[in-house]
Write a structure and sequence with these properties.
The chain is α/β, with parallel strands linked by helices. Helices cover 32% and strands 26% of the residues. The chain has a 4-stranded mixed beta sheet. It is elongated, with a radius of gyration of 22 Å. Bound molecules: ligand EPZ. Ligand EPZ binds at residues 22-23, 26, 92-93, 119, 121-126, 166, 168-171, 309-310, 332-333, 375-376, 403. Ligand EPZ is lined by residues 22-23, 26, 92-93, 119, 121-126, 166, 168-171, 309-310, 332-333, 375-376, 403.
């Protein structure tokens, strides 16, 4: 089991290049199932989840030619329409093969994703949407078995009007991909507006899909018979960007993110300025300066463009050592406070009542041995380790490797005293 050892107390200085977005790369890789042509993806992040998704697609018959920071997928020889439990259980995003497989091949068997640390995370909206488009779906032995009934013509989904009871990012992505090859027009209402949904739409449009309204809560997709290959550059990771900015706001210093985008981080940047950081953005760089103790900031998670749930844990770490008290309200997932217990081991003063945590900032956290429980909680613990006095050792950092490319190398380059130990 690998761990991270961090000596707290260093400030952060210098430049860090932001990698391609995990939550854009994963759905866009699944778009490779929608065509028999080659899909070439640039700015691919080197992440465990990306490797898992690639393995899943390859075992279905997709070819994947990997180069540094890029991959060329080809879905010409797909011959296995199944996503097995042992691959889905480690990465919920595997559900994103469901829409493309049903749309192009008229059939799919995808393991129901188990729950995960942060919540039960059902996929009922994905299933309801495909049923609305004409798929027959049976849940049997833990698998979703979807089929398009053998009509007279080809087994093809039909366009439909679909209203999401809840805003679902991968639900929107799955159904947008399915609708791209459906017969007729599909309207997704109350769709997710996340930038990763927009990046997927841009890739699909480059492949010949007809999509309007991506980025708004109503997306209209006019199905086409076939999609062709394309080249697409994955957008920068806004959560990795936010994570480094919060780390510098907590530890103090002066860092510049490169290959980043400020326009998709407005809410997070506003919160960091409220905490006392000075921020300058220019082109694809974001600079943050912080030379004093941060002010506590309240956050309430909500779908984009409101404050992202994937940044909640990081801001809780900042609030642990901020001046004043703050409330953190998590409205998206029912169990996304796993980091609270670990932060308390470092001396943090946090009270939790339901989906609300109240953090009373203290001057100094004390280093200790703690444990990562999920991806963004691990990032929170790294930030806490950077500001704690003495050494913090974080166990189970495989969670971190799922979503952050070489985080200890990037932090060391900024002056952090952090090393990986086995
Ligand atoms: C995506 O997960 C992201 N993952 C998550 O990032 C992110 O936290 C989440 O969106 C919210 O922004 C990827 O994009 C791969 P949802 P997703 O469907 O799509 C409920 C990270 O750290 N819901 O938007 O699974 C659900 O339980 C990960 O990178 C249903 O009830 O999230 C949740 O309460 C963690 N039924 C809410 O909707 C459904 O069919 C939002 O979930 C689908 C979702």
């Amino acid at each position: 089991m690998q761990k991270l050892a961090i000596q707290g107390g260093t400030t952060l200085h210098g430049e860090v290049r932001i990698s391609g977005a995990k939550n854009a790369a994963l759905p866009i890789m699944c778009a490779g199932l929608l065509t028999a042509d080659e899909l070439h993806l640039d700015n691919m992040p080197d992440l465990h989840d990306v490797a898992t998704m690639r393995k899943l697609l390859v075992q279905m018959g997709v070819t994947a030619a990997v180069e540094p920071g890029a991959v060329t997928l080809c879905g010409a020889q797909v011959d296995k329409l199944e996503a097995p439990y042992d691959m889905v259980k480690t990465m919920r995003a595997a559900i994103l093969v469901l829409g493309p497989l049903v749309a192009r091949f008229g059939e799919a068997r995808v393991s129901l994703p188990g729950g995960c640390a942060i919540g039960s995370r059902p996929v009922d909206l994905h299933i309801k949407g495909l049923q609305a488009m004409g798929a027959e779906i049976h849940i049997e032995h833990g698998y979703i078995h979807a089929q398009v009934p053998h009509g007279k013509g080809a087994k093809r989904l039909k366009g439909a009007r679909i209203f999401f009871d809840l805003v679902s990012v991968t639900g929107t992505e799955n159904l947008m991909m399915a609708a791209a090859l459906a017969d007729g027009v599909t309207v997704l209402e109350n769709a997710a507006r996340e930038p990763e949904v927009v990046d997927l739409a841009h890739c699909l449009i480059a492949m010949g899909a007809k999509i309007e309204g991506a980025g708004s809560d109503t997306i209209v997709i006019t199905g086409v018979e076939k999609l062709h290959g394309a080249r697409h550059r994955i957008m920068p990771d806004r959560i990795e960007s936010g994570t480094f900015l919060v780390a510098a706001a907590a530890a103090g210093g002066d860092i510049t993110l490169t290959d980043a985008r400020a326009d998709i981080l407005e809410n997070v940047l506003e919160k960091l300025q409220e905490a006392g950081a000075t921020i300058h953005t220019a082109g694809n760089t974001i600079n943050l300066k912080m030379n004093k103790r941060p002010q506590a900031v309240n956050v309430r998670t909500s779908p984009y463009p409101a404050f992202p749930t994937d940044m909640q844990a990081q801001f809780m770490a900042l609030n642990c050592i901020a001046a004043g008290s703050a409330m953190v309200v998590e409205t998206i997932f029912e169990n996304r406070f796993m980091h609270v217990q670990e932060l308390r081991r470092l001396g943090a003063q946090i009270d939790v009542e339901g989906n609300t945590a109240v953090i009373k900032g203290i001057l100094q956290l004390e280093g200790a041995t703690i444990m990562a429980t999920d991806l963004r909680a691990s990032a929170c613990l790294v930030i806490a380790g950077l500001v704690a006095q003495g050494e913090t050792v974080i166990d189970r950092i495989y969670h971190l490797d799922r979503g952050y490319e070489h985080i200890e190398a990037k932090l060391s380059a900024l002056g952090a005293n952090i090393r990986r130990i086995t």
